[in-house]
Design goal:
The complex is a heterodimer of chains A (290) and B (344). Chain A is an all-alpha fold and 290 residues long. Helix content of chain A is 72%, strand content 2%. A two-stranded antiparallel ribbon of chain A has the order 1-2. In chain A, a hairpin with a 2-residue loop joins β1 and β2. The N and C termini of chain A lie far apart (42 Å). A two-stranded antiparallel sheet of chain B has the order 1-2. A two-stranded antiparallel sheet of chain B has the order 3-4. By secondary structure, chain B is mainly α. In chain B, α2 packs antiparallel against α10 and α8 packs across α10. The chains are: A mainly alpha (290), B mainly alpha (344).
Chain lengths: 290, 344
């Protein structure tokens, strides 16, 4: 029982960052319909920027997180502007091939710039774990969860309560009508991709200090993000948030009770099962099978 | 002229070991040939049915592991039973590797073709990752990250001809060349048969194809079976040639290599994977003198993006168009060869 409790606490902590990854991708894959294989690279980019600001330059830990997120947003907007803008009407395979190419380029650039050795980011929080009865957890992980939840809430507000969010939803529902209503459709595309990328970078910046930063850390992150998006239903932000926690729970249980080697396999098993039995995702209302 | 081109190419490549004595270059060509075979199998799905399998390396790796384990033997305990397998000849391993990879193609086809487009891609990627994790973690069977060393090379022949074991580079070169030529012929027959036309019809317009009575699942699954088996064959050739395999064969970059070969050469063309395979098989040899592996991959990624922007159909259709324009300038308005090559 105590062990299960510990698993649930771990789930909450990993789930927060998974939810960030998933919400970022659901904006790009679910709403913009771009099979974004660079999502994991943006996650790795966020972690490396965190390393750069916090460990190399030695800036304040929390300011570094904000800077890493901003850098992710800028890189995402840059990708959309250079690679995707001219291919907007193209079929999904074309953009997918472009994104695979971009993925390889980014990953190897990271390798080239930072080297293959794993980097660790020092944390300013106390080393002493927080002990609550049978459960113990580090302060760093608590902070990760708090920031992740704050970012999820902020994204929800931006999409559902602001004029910018309204413009985004309008653009991807009917681009022509949105343009006629005076929405700058090009800018909205770039901003949405930037926002999604910023969330991936945030997940990387938050998990970077918890684990270590390596050039290939993005591979699994991309695929896990796809699992979360499919689980939650395309374009469903609440679904992606819940999907993040479900994936984290499945991984905890898989690692705890089956074998830790198969922790990362859980996401793929979930993808396969969900697509076979409920391809619209667990929380989708309308049929949206690609 | 165009009709004889494949034969000329075959004669040329058959002559290569006669004048190229550098073992390193021959080795590069053998590995390039094996990946070309895998790219041909991917082309069946990506080029002819229009479904991008991004988990293709799974079939390749399964072929390699099945073939290696058959010829090395293994002993595992499964659900309380002890299963011991004595080593069998490598040729049997190759056949088994091909068949089992084809069976996996059947299973994945049956499961994954319930969904299309991006979803199909994600299911195939997930499949490959699961297989990789199994190869990494089922240490008793696969030796995990410690790799399976000492895989015997192929032995060919019959009792009345005597046996020959393929240790050398040029022997393996000819073996791969024979398989490439066979695969080329089989795929050529296949895509010009009613089966091939059904696949192309499904790619061009699935709804219309269904309305004239083409069974979607049947043809897509058949394509996946052929494709999986051919990739498995390539994997088993790889295992017996390199003689050591580890879970790195399931690396996503191997799938990417195949995809780049097909896309650059021209998806849905017979010669596309061959041309793409040659380019990306030989490019590392030239590039390694100047830049490290990371920069090479960066260049491949940039090339892939550039191809999508500049030559979305790939190199072979571009050359064909240029060739047609040159010949139609001589004799006015020749009918397009587009349908023949499967590019609508």
């Amino acid at each position: 029982m105590d062990q299960l409790l510990q698993h649930i606490v771990n789930t909450l902590i990993m789930g927060g960052t998974y939810a960030l990854l998933g919400i970022g991708l659901t904006l790009i894959f679910g709403i913009m319909r771009i099979v974004n294989f660079t999502h994991g690279e943006l996650y790795a980019f966020g972690a490396y920027m965190m390393y750069f600001f916090a460990a190399v330059i030695g800036m304040n830990f929390f300011v570094s997180i904000a800077f890493a997120i901003a850098a992710g947003m800028i890189l995402g907007a840059f990708i959309e502007y250079t690679l995707l803008r001219s291919k907007r009407g193209a079929d999904i395979d074309t953009t997918m091939l472009i994104m695979i190419g971009a993925w390889i380029v980014f990953q190897n650039l990271e390798h080239l710039v930072w080297g293959g050795v794993a980097k660790s980011i020092p944390s300013p929080l106390p080393e002493q774990p927080l002990v609550l009865g049978p459960v113990s957890l580090s302060w760093l992980r608590v902070m990760v969860l708090v920031i992740a939840l704050a970012l999820i809430a902020a994204t929800y507000v931006v999409i559902n309560r602001t004029k910018l969010g309204k413009a985004m939803r309008a653009t991807f529902q009917d681009s022509n009508t949105a343009a006629l209503m005076g929405i700058n459709v090009n800018a909205i595309h770039t901003m949405t991709f930037g926002l999604g990328s910023a969330l991936a970078a945030a997940a990387g910046a938050l998990l970077g200090p918890v684990f270590v930063v390596t050039p290939t850390m993005g591979d699994l992150a991309s695929l896990k993000a796809f699992a979360i998006v499919i689980l939650g239903g395309l374009g469903n932000i609440t679904g992606a948030a819940i999907g993040g926690f479900i994936l984290a729970f499945a991984e905890e249980i898989g690692a705890g009770y089956i074998s830790s080697g198969y922790r990362d396999a859980m996401g793929f098993v979930i993808i396969i099962i969900v697509l076979l039995f409920k391809p619209t995702g667990l929380f989708a209302r309308t049929e949206r099978v690609g | 002229m165009k009709r004889y081109l494949p034969y000329l190419a075959l004669v040329f490549f058959a002559s290569v070991p006669l004048w190229l004595h550098d073992q390193y270059y021959l080795h590069t060509l053998v590995v390039a040939g094996i990946f070309m075979l895998a790219a041909m199998s991917l082309n069946l799905l990506l080029g002819y049915t229009g479904q991008l399998s991004l988990g293709h390396v799974a079939f390749f790796g399964i072929g390699a592991y099945v073939s290696a384990l058959t010829s090395l033997g293994f002993s595992i305990s499964l659900f309380g039973y002890q299963i011991t397998h004595e080593p069998w000849p490598p040729v049997v391993g190759m056949v088994l590797g091909t068949v089992i990879a084809g069976l996996c193609g059947y299973l994945i086809g049956k499961l994954a073709f319930r969904v299309r487009g991006a979803y199909f891609v994600i299911v195939t990627v997930s499949f490959a990752e699961v297989v990789r994790l199994v190869a990494l973690n089922w240490v008793e069977l696969t030796n995990g990250p410690l790799a399976l060393p000492g895989i015997p090379p192929l032995t060919l022949g019959f009792e009345w001809t005597g046996y020959v074991t393929l240790w050398g580079k040029s022997q393996n070169y000819y073996l791969v060349l024979v398989f490439l030529a066979l695969a080329y012929l089989v795929i050529k027959r296949l895509v010009h048969s009613p089966f091939g036309r059904a696949m192309i019809a499904l790619r061009e317009n699935e709804t219309l194809a269904v309305s004239v009575g083409i069974s979607v699942t049947k043809y897509l699954v058949l394509a996946a079976v052929f494709s999986g088996a051919l990739a498995g064959l390539a994997g088993s050739l790889y295992a017996h040639y390199i003689q050591i395999i580890d879970p790195m064969v399931f690396m996503f970059l191997n799938t990417v290599t195949m995809v780049i070969m097909v896309v650059t050469g021209g998806k849905g063309t017979l010669a596309g994977p061959v041309v793409g395979g040659l380019i990306f098989g030989i490019a590392p040899v030239i590039l390694r003198n100047y830049v490290g592996p990371e920069v090479q991959w960066i260049l491949y990624g940039l090339l892939m993006i550039a191809i999508v922007f500049v030559l979305p159909d790939g190199i072979v259709p571009a050359i064909e168009r240029w060739f047609n324009r040159a010949s139609s300038a001589a004799q006015k308005s020749e009918p397009s060869l587009a349908l023949q090559t499967g590019k609508g």
